[in-house]
Design brief:
Number of strands: 7
Number of helices: 26
Helix content: 55-70%
Oligomer: single chain
Largest sheet: 5 strands, mixed
Shape: globular
Length: 609
């Protein structure tokens, strides 16, 4: 027996068996869930929602109220409505939870409970999946210590935890969980057709939720295709099952989620015809390659089949949907990009983060980068049964790191995926570390939370090197993005509200009003209309307000947005309102409990004149 597979010694607590991992998962899940929920209990569960969470809750409420399953229009956003790019795959379980709890708790209680229960359940599922991935990658070597280390690392994955806090019901946590499920099943694709088929289902579900994980899943699928070319008949039945399930489940999901008339549309920012072609076509390509292997089992034949089918698929995709080569944000107006999109945290690039908040770079990149380096070294020293599970996890991690170089949203998935890889790599590279509590101690020292601490500790040095470096912090309450901040607007007669971008989802969730601006790239028209009102002259603003039949203008007193409006257009409407210069077509309103808000009613008669 090799030294890395020796039994754990010197730690009776770690040697008791598999129950240990589940006890730790339960305890960590409860502890982290309580810690993440603490701010929400202090400020209110509904105020813990981000803008995306508030929009998701609005969509779920609309679905429960009877909006059509295939109708993804948000009818109160930029009236008569904006077609959203989100998926019913997330809406359905949330609506089911609320409907299940409503008879016991009432509607508000059911929603509040769902805001806590949904992210907690997904966090628990993620910890279970991390432990399972570690088990499958380690091939039984020092199993319990490796699993416990992986679980602890996942529980300390700071960039991921924000997606599992109370109130987090958008889609990122669900995608992370589905990606982990995909890796768990794909790690046994050499051994089991059932696991291969389940991997296909998990991949398709993740992509049906959203395309953020597409590069990671596509990279993993390329690794699976490479495995088929390399090993042939030994793995071809399992990979055929994976390809068949990938193709079949994607078509079934398309039938369940998309109206047939929408399939030819060039939808490049969500699950639709273009990416259905890629997913189903990719599955078919794997099936063809496996079929060729049954006919002529040579590496050259398999490589030729994989290359030919892949090139035909890509050629068809680029020929039918050439617009999908562009960024999904390419159509967003430059003014909207400069004022809103460039300031969204999850869409920041590494270059932007380096300029604005360099102390956060270790927390986002340190642990995944270290893990990737360890994984590369481990693959060459691991036993044969561990090599492909480590390889597919490593290439997935590399793709996620690549995503985060472009947009920081990839860092959350990267830190979670890195947790089991790091624990297994240490156990294989340095077997002595996997005995007793040494592995757990090393995991704590190199955890994502520790890297966050290292970055923060370096901040004084960064400040001295960059004396003029500054960022104006603004929390959700001070920027009026919370539900409670805008709730007083519910007392006004139902109408159309012109308000800054980040106030939009909260207004939808807290009131029956319609809004024009919200933080979504498909809402380019409504966002641009709002900016033209705020930055335009009084005459220009009056014309737009009349054309859009706006009833109310709302601003957040002292917010960064209001300051930015004043800087960009000192003679614009928003700057004038901040100075107390109120045109005759606006009537100031004073609502009880709305001290943070500045509200004006648009006088239709004045606007017409």
């Amino acid at each position: 027996m090799s030294n890395y597979s020796a039994a754990i010694t010197g730690s009776p607590a770690l040697a008791r068996g598999p129950a240990n991992a589940f006890i730790v998962i339960a305890m960590l899940c409860a502890a982290v869930a309580l810690a993440l929920a603490a701010p929400a209990y202090r400020t209110g569960l509904f105020d813990a929602m981000s803008t995306d969470d508030a929009m998701r809750l609005t969509e779920v409420r609309d679905l429960i109220a009877g909006q059509g399953w295939f109708d993804l229009m948000q009818h109160r956003l930029d009236p008569p409505g904006t077609l959203m790019h989100w998926s019913r795959v997330v809406d359905a379980p949330l609506a089911a939870l609320i409907l299940l709890l409503r008879p016991l708790l009432g509607m508000q209680g059911a929603e509040a409970t769902t805001l806590v229960l949904w992210p907690t359940l997904l966090f628990g599922a993620s910890l279970v999946l991390v432990a399972a991935i570690a088990k499958r990658m380690s091939d039984g070597a020092n199993l319990h210590a490796v699993q416990l280390a992986a679980i602890i690392l996942a529980a300390l994955s700071v960039p991921s935890l924000v997606h599992f806090r109370a109130g987090a019901i958008d889609h990122h946590n669900f995608q992370i969980t589905l990606l982990l499920a995909f890796l768990m099943f794909a790690s046994r694709i050499e051994r089991s057709r059932v696991d291969a088929a389940l991997a296909g289902i998990a991949a398709t579900l993740s992509l049906a939720v959203g395309l953020e994980m597409l590069p990671a899943i596509a990279t993993a699928c390329v690794a699976i295709a490479g495995l088929l070319v390399w090993r042939g008949k030994i793995v071809s039945p399992q990979i055929f099952a994976f390809g068949a399930t990938l193709a079949g489940s994607s078509m079934l999901l398309a039938a369940a989620l998309l109206p047939p008339h929408s399939l030819p549309a060039p939808v490049c920012d969500a699950f639709g015809g273009p990416f259905l072609l890629l997913i189903a076509g990719g599955g078919l390509s794997l099936m063809i390659t496996a079929g060729v292997d049954a006919w002529r089992s040579t590496m050259a034949a398999r490589a030729a089949a994989a290359a030919a089918s892949g090139l035909i698929l890509l050629a068809a995709f680029f020929n039918l949907f050439p617009g999908c080569l562009a960024s999904p944000y390419a159509a967003v107006d430059p003014l909207v990009v400069s004022i809103w999109l460039d300031h969204v945290a999850e869409t920041m690039s590494l270059q932007t983060l380096l300029q604005l908040e360099p102390q956060k770079i270790p927390g986002y990149f340190g642990f995944p980068a270290l893990t990737l380096a360890l994984a590369v070294a481990t693959i060459f020293r691991s036993p044969p049964g561990c090599r492909f599970p480590l390889l597919i996890a490593a290439v997935t991690l590399a793709a996620l790191i690549g995503i985060s170089l472009w947009q920081m949203r990839g860092a959350a998935g990267a830190t979670m995926v890195a947790a089991p890889i790091f624990a297994v790599s240490l156990a294989i590279l340095w077997p002595a570390c996997a005995r007793g509590r040494k592995l757990l101690l090393l995991a704590l020292i190199a955890s994502p939370a520790s890297f966050v601490g290292y970055g923060l500790a370096a901040r004084p040095v960064i400040d001295r090197m960059r004396p003029h470096w500054t960022i104006a912090p603004e929390d959700a309450a001070s920027s009026c993005r919370t539900v409670s901040s805008v709730a007083p607007l519910a007392g006004l007669p139902r109408g159309r509200v012109m308000a800054p971008i980040d106030l939009g989802p909260a207004i939808l969730a807290a009131t029956e009003h319609s809004i024009f601006a919200a933080p979504y790239h498909r809402n380019n028209d409504g966002n641009l209309a709002m900016l033209r009102v705020m930055l335009g002259t009084t005459r220009e603003a009056q014309q737009i307000l009349r054309e859009r039949q706006v009833d109310y203008i709302v601003l957040c007193r002292g917010s960064l947005e209001q300051l930015e409006f004043k800087q960009l257009a000192p003679d614009g409407l928003a700057a004038g309102l901040a100075r107390g210069e109120i045109p005759d077509f606006l009537q100031p309103l004073d609502l009880v409990g709305a001290a943070k808000l500045a509200i004006w009613r648009v006088r239709r008669a004045g606007a017409a004149g």
